[in-house]
Amino acid sequence: MRHFTRLLALCTLTLVAACGQDTAPKQSASQGGPALWQMQRGALNGWLFGTIHVLPKGIAWDTPTIRDAMTASDRLVLEAADLQDEQKTLSLFEKTGRSPGLPPLERRVPEGERAALTKAMADGGTNSQLLSGYESWAAAMLLSAASQQSLGVSQDDGVEPVLIATFKKAGKPIGGLETVERQFAAFDTLPEAAQSRLLVQTVHEAKGMKALYDRILTAWSKGDMEAIAKEDQIGEQPDPVVEEAVLVARNRDWVKAIEPMKGRPFIAVGAGHLTGRENLIELLEARGFTVTRVQ
After folding, report:
1. Distance spanning both ends of the chain, measured CA to CA
2. Cβ of 230: how many Cβ atoms within 10 Å?
3. What's the whole-model pTM score?
């Protein structure tokens, strides 16, 4: 999927409600359902599941294969277990994303992009006065979330809440590969030039967000990882600085977190982390894990 669209589902919709109207008909995951892998090394024999963090209502993604894997597992491991704490996430976002004395948002993008930025803000129901108190990466997240208001999707209908409810009901522990602080730090430590490029790309992608999301949803529900990977080749190429900090470096950290694990964890991360340069599967295989597609 396109670069920033991979990233926005980390936490954007926890910050701005994007529920919209339930216009999507109920449907089942087709052609086998979303991608699932079994991963083995030494005393670890678990599963790796590629999620999509925001969904319309009525998407039946939990196939018998996925349910069997959840039943057989001994714990759930998410990207960040504390991301579901909306109050904590919002508080951290406000603390990390705001800075005093920032210039107006329009002055942080090239002159030729200012009209498009203004239009994107207006289309999303926000404005420069509201966003200019945020650093550019945080403003990009909020602008992207505002642009999604019409998609009819919600984090509440995403994969993670269902996984959490299932494992809690079974009395199994829930952990994370990182913390919300680590996720925000990946953005917050970007140089301003990279943050500005991220903001510009967010403006560009807001125009075709619905078509892009629909393609990603279709590919994900079929387990078509090749189609998801091809989204990287459509439109603008990812900023290498952002890609390194927000995707690749975190994938490397996650491998370090997985290596000492034992038992039967069910590890669920965004599907965008399972394709592209130095994706999580490739990094695990390089460390001696056997990763086998089972759905």
Report:
1. 20
2. 14
3. 0.86
